[in-house]
Amino acid sequence: MPEVTYREAVRDALSRALREDEGVFLMGEDIAEMGGSMAVTQGLLEEFGAKRIRNTPISEMAIVGTAIGAAMQGMRPIVEIMYEDFLTLSMEQLVNQAAKHRTMSGGQLKVPLTIRTQGGAGWSPGAQHAQQLEAWFVHVPGLKVVFASTPEDVRGLLWTAIHDDNPVVFFEHRTLYPVKGEVPDELEPIPLGKARIHREGTDVTVIATGRLVHEALQAAEEAEKDGISVEVVDPRTLLPLDEEAIVASVRKTTRCVTAHEAVTRAGFGAELAAIVQHGAFDWLDAPIERVGARFAPLPFAPVMEQWVVPHAADVLDAVRRTVARA
Amino acid sequence: MAVEVKLPRLGQGMEAGTIVRWLKSEGDAVAKGEPLYELDTDKVTQEVEADADGVLLKIMISDGEVDVGTTVGVIGAEGEDVSGLGDGNGASPQPPAAETSAAKDEPSGAPAEATAPVEAAAPAPPAAGGERVKASPLARRIARERGLDLSSIAGTGPEGRVIAEDVERAADGAPAAPPAPAVAAPAPPAPPGEVEVVELTSVRRTIARRLTEAWEAPVFQLSVTVDASELSATRERMVGLMREGEVKPTVNDVLTRLTAAALMRHRAVNAHFVEGRIHRWPGANIGIAVATPNGLVVPVIRGAERSSVQEIAAVRADLVARARDGKLQLADLEDGTFTISNLGMYGIEQFVAVLNPPQVAILAVGSIEDRPRVEGGELVVSPTMSMTLTCDHRAIDGSEGAEFLRDLKALVESPALAL
Fold it and tell me: Domains of chain A: which residue ranges?
């Protein structure tokens, strides 16, 4: 199996979808000649031409609104929102239009729209270019929400998102683009709503998303030296959510830590904790621990930025708390 | 992963049920939706379906009365270890910790490992009496299943919390088998041969409880005698017009339809009396008292005011057949707004029915007999039927009951008025 980067894996899914279906096209800021601000769409203009790889004006609301119209007309638009912070500008279109048309029209309309976006700290982008806002979208019925953490997952999930008949908000993480991983030659679509168990363990389950999957795996290595066996589960899609796999894992390990880069308060980990306490109440041997960013706008100063967002060490601390003795 | 089979709550107010028998044995493959066991609730006996695919790995409780939510079995993959699941919730109650330690203090005889002290050298003292014990949900569950008293277990978790490991340790140290209760009562004298003692089935028990409750309601009865000529004639004409495959309507089916019409004109009678309030129902859901081998049940014909006699007959035939086979579902018995009890087929001429709470009225119908009547000063003989309405006076006044019965009599004597 060839090793490719997360960035190449995204591009591969896009290229294949563009090749396979004339109805698929890309819209976004600087995605054509420049190849996107994260270089994900590099080379696509040359292969597919300006009609299908479309630069847009700087208006997220207009981009998403246009794409919704195209989707309702039977196309499969893929929108790139340069930073997920900018998704806030398209909320009206996404929340009140894209998410609602299918049910409000009694199923007469479909919105097969994919919105790719990226975010995340770790390179001093400051307070307005690095947030993790995935939880906002999990709160909206009618949307689907994906957050992939590995090259194989990002390719298989993006393929499925593009071919889903509902609007999918697809989160990528800025610091994962150069991460390499083995990816099969043949693209295997990954169904939405299926978690992945990255590592099996018996003492505590860490449910992690995005960058924190990698931090959790690192923490698990460390914990093993202390004789603590950590299971790492990545839900991969936040909506729909594989509650069954999550609850089953915690029932097995009897302890649970949630981990994401987004701020802890009202973050996705809160939803996970609620699901776990309900589904595995009689199996829990310790309070559920949540790992996330401190409740602060992200500082620009690198040292302070690193202090605000969570790392493997924070996950490890949480793991230790769950197995703690007095 | 193994799934625990828990006793479901099949209807409002259901707290427990009695497992009659399992339809699958341990080791059998089961598919989701397949009948797993027969459950006797206080209303019906029904089959409970499996809610997972797999193999029935273990039957925890093979029969008897069980609380809702109790694990009665486990479904999982073949060969899966189920030792940690739900075990013990059906086991006989364990003695309290005090008795356990008393048993330990017995001077001799027991093997050394069985008398090992239970957490005698515990690091933290057990919680004092009455104080809330800090314990994880898992620790609580294990303690519950094994009959251990949490307050006697020292916690080693953060803030002295009792965690699963502490309970396991305490359980391992406890005597393997609880001593048999010492107070075995002397066997009761055998009943004399001529008296048969019959245990109440749960249906019978419910009948007893509900009708005793009903007896407390202040009731009054109103009776009328009606000319049943048109009722019988209408039914005869309907039988004559029956199409292939239709159910033959009975006099009671026609009466059900006419009663529904009368109820719609007298909503006060089509009501429930619940917690000091009267609930007047928009439609007539008429319960039909049916005798079964297990006792009386009252399946409900819903929306009788909107149904033709032919439709009522079809529903009634299905309900009665299933009632006799013990195949009624709870849904068949719920939401009745009025009940008809007809003992005409036994030749009972007139009788008084006991209220079927929370309904506020019930109609007792007697047999149709040729009787002499005086009509315009002349003695005539015609088919005659008596109807007696029992009313809950808390909800209905005499005049309201009388008006209903007067209109019902008119409808029975001229069924066309129901149009």
Answer: 3-182, 196-322
- Fold held by A3-182: Rossmann fold (3.40.50)
Distance from the B70 Cα atom to the nearest Cα atom in chain A, whole angstroms: 13
Q: Which residues of chain B are within 8 Å of residue A251 when distances are taken between CB atoms?
A: 1
Cα separation, A87 vs A69, in Å, equals 18
The dihedral built from the CA positions of residue B260, B264, B267 and B271, taken in this order, carries a sign that is positive
CATH 3.30.559.10 assigned to B204-418: yes
Distance in Å, alpha carbon of A281 to nearest chain B alpha carbon: 6
Residues B124, A281: C-beta atoms closer than 8 Å? no
**Residue whose entry in the numeric block shows the structure tokens 């609007």:** A167
CA distance B108 to B401: 78
pLDDT in tens, A98-136: 999 999 999 999 999 999 999 999 999 999 999 999 999
CB contact under 8 A, B1 and A248: yes
A171 near A236, Cβ under 8 Å? no
Query: Global pTM?
Result: 0.54
Residue of A271, A77, A70 whose CA lies nearest to A161: A77
Pairing state between β A53-55 and A24-28: parallel
Tell me the C-alpha distance between B54 and B78, whole Å.
7
Chain B residues with beta carbon closer than 8 angstroms to that of A326: 124, 155-161
A240 cis-preceded (ω within 30 degrees of 0): yes
Task: Give SS3 for A312.
Answer: helix
Chain B contact set for A248 (CB, 8 A):
1
CATH code of the domain occupying B3-76: 2.40.50.100
Contacts of B160 in chain A (CB under 8 A): 326
- CATH top class, domain A196-322: alpha beta
Q: Which of B364, B389, B390, B358 is nearest to B280 (CA)?
A: B358
Tokens 């398209």 identify what position? Answer: A90
Give residues 280 to 319 of A whose Cβ lies within 8 Å of B.
281-286
Range from A50-54, A230-234, B69-73, B308-312 carrying the lowest mean pLDDT = B69-73
Q: Return d(Cα A7, Cα A167) in angstroms, integer.
A: 22
Kind plus residue range of the DSSP H or E element containing A259: strand A256-263
Residue B13's identity, in one-letter code, is: G
Confirm whether A129 is a catalytic residue.
yes
Contacting residues for A73 by C-beta, under 8 A, at least 6 apart: none
**Within a 13 Å sphere around the CA of A282, how many CA atoms are in the beta-carbon half?**
9
B222 with B402: CB under 8 angstroms? yes
The Cβ of residue A195 has, within 10 Å, a number of other Cβ atoms equal to: 19
Q: What tens digit of pLDDT does each residue of B128-154 get?
A: 555 678 899 999 989 988 888 888 888
Q: What angle do CA B165, B168, B174 make, to 5 degrees?
A: 145
Q: Please tell me the CATH code under which domain B97-173 is placed.
A: 4.10.320.10
**Partner-chain residue, chosen from A284, A321, A324, that has the shortest CB–CB distance to B137:** A284
Asked whether B381 and B222 are in contact (CB, 8 A), the reply is: no
> Which structure tokens are listed for A92?
């009206």
The DSSP 8-state label assigned to residue B184 in this structure reads: P
Q: Given an 8 Å threshold on Cβ–Cβ distance, is A285 in contact with B138?
A: yes
- Alpha carbon distance B314, B304 (integer Å): 12
Give the SS3 label for residue A199: strand
- For residue B103, name the pLDDT band (cuts at 50, 70, 90): very low
- Does residue B358 have a cis bond before it (omega within 30 degrees)? yes
Question: What is residue B359's DSSP assignment?
Answer: B
Task: Give the residue carrying structure tokens 């939405």.
Answer: A192
Nearest 5°: the CA angle B333, B339, B342 is: 115
**Residue A299 has what DSSP assignment?**
P
Interface predicted TM-score (ipTM) of this complex, two decimals: 0.75
